[in-house]
Automatic annotation (TrEMBL):
Organism: Mycolicibacterium aichiense
Annotated keywords: Oxidoreductase
Gene3D superfamilies named among the record's database cross-references: Aldehyde Dehydrogenase, Chain A, domain 1, Aldehyde Dehydrogenase, Chain A, domain 2
InterPro entries the UniProt entry points to: Ald_DH/histidinol_DH, Ald_DH_C, Ald_DH_N, Aldehyde_DH_dom
Family: Belongs to the aldehyde dehydrogenase family.
Keyword Oxidoreductase: yes
Name under which the protein is recorded: Aldehyde dehydrogenase
Pfam families per the UniProt record, alphabetical: Aldedh (PF00171)
Amino acid sequence: MRIGGQEVDSDRLMTIVDPSTGAPIATVARGDAGHIDAAVAAARDTFESGVWRTKTPQERAAIMRRIVAAATDVADELVELELSANGATVRQATGFHIGYALAHFSYFADLAETYAWQRPAPIASFPALSQSVVHREPIGVVGAIAPWNFPLLLTLWKVGPALAAGNSVVVKPDEHTPLSILAFARIAEQNGLPPGVLNVVPGDGRDAGARLASHPDVGKIAFTGSTAVGREIMSLASGTVKHVTLELGGKGPSIVLDDADLDMAVDGVLYGCFVYSGQVCESGTRALVPEHLHDEFVRRLVDRAQTIVIGPTRDWDTDMGPVIDAKQQQRILDYVRGAVAEGATVALGGEALDRDGFWFQPTILTGVRNVMRIAQEEVFGPVLVVIPYTDSDHAVRIANDSEYGLAASIWSSDNARALDIAGRIQAGSVWINDAHQINCHVPFGGYKQSGLGRELGPDALDAYTEIKTVHLDLSGGRDAKPYDLLLSHADQGASR
Ligand code: NAD
């Protein structure tokens, strides 16, 4: 663990396993609620001391950029730490998991410099002349709870804006994947982040995570993970009325219109679903296809999906790696079997692979209706369902018939038509002729039960600041004030 600038050990350990082999690769201290208390106390001390909070935004940005430069120098080591614990392929870990993480952290440094820390309001003349200025101030101690799929990236989406705004932070990484954020926190302290500003406590969700979400000295909790745990976090945070940001699950539709470029749509739908073995919250896991194109589209999907190379994660030729663990592998299998029992047909895959580690075949299911569990619940594995639709109104109805609303894609050669449909989709991101377009310059997050609030984008720091309005009276004296709404004029009062 990293608490108050110290590496802290524990008698209780967690074993980190490489999902591509099933072999243990590291042991890490298993923090508990007591360690969370110590980390929150360290974060609170640094916040109150002002060692980070009172630096100018430019000073904070400069240190954050120095951290990015140092992390970039050892990017290959971070890639290895990330993929060895979460099973990403080396291509995905380099581009998405670590590449995006460092680029986005750098974006938050830029935001610190351009953010409107003070916004003067227009001078008011009623009820008396005055000027108000809206100040944005750090909240205090921010708690960040992250999942295993993009451990560093999704942690830095919280740590980046929190630090840019001057907060101190306690991170509770996922049980599978504490390695990259522990390394990052060490690099951060070696490059100018004062000790205790960024604390990392690996541990169990129900113990360490729950304590962080309910801790009275934590002013904000930012969480990415499943919708079920998101509900618990919200309820735990309600005890002290914390700020809450939630990035939760998804069941994204990929809507193929009848005028789509089918070569691009086939590759795009597969990319949208199978990248990182389908373990991306905003994956397009439901392909909605016009009835008359259904059979041809499925044939082309299946042909193309058969070219996906499954292999060692460190091999640059590998397209798809394992799933996170044996439990998730079994859960995916249960979902597929359940779908077949409900009437679905396996067009491709459908089975776990019999090799060391935790592998699952790219799987395509047809004969799926949107009411089926496989179309409503998040599988979090390489499983694509194909659902036919009659016309575009029908496609929009199916797309929106979900408790989730994180992301959607539309495949069409007619931009006006695609934009019209985009306007009718209930989702936080809609990509036209694209998928997985995570851009730090625009907000990311979900409608409905996919979350609360947004991460990234030009306003990302809003969620890590308190708003304080400071009012300055400019009236020039007692006579200009409206106090006679309550009090008689001072002279009259004195004479009575
Ligand atoms: P999870 O909800 O099981 O765990 C996420 C984190 O919460 C872990 O750190 C875990 O230890 C912690 N946790 C578990 N129970 C807790 C509790 N009671 N109190 C506090 N913390 C607790 O999710 P997961 O299996 O790690 O991740 C997969 C899920 O995350 C999927 O549903 C996926 O869609 C979602 N996800 C969403 C986004 C997004 O941005 N919307 C991104 C990635 C993943």
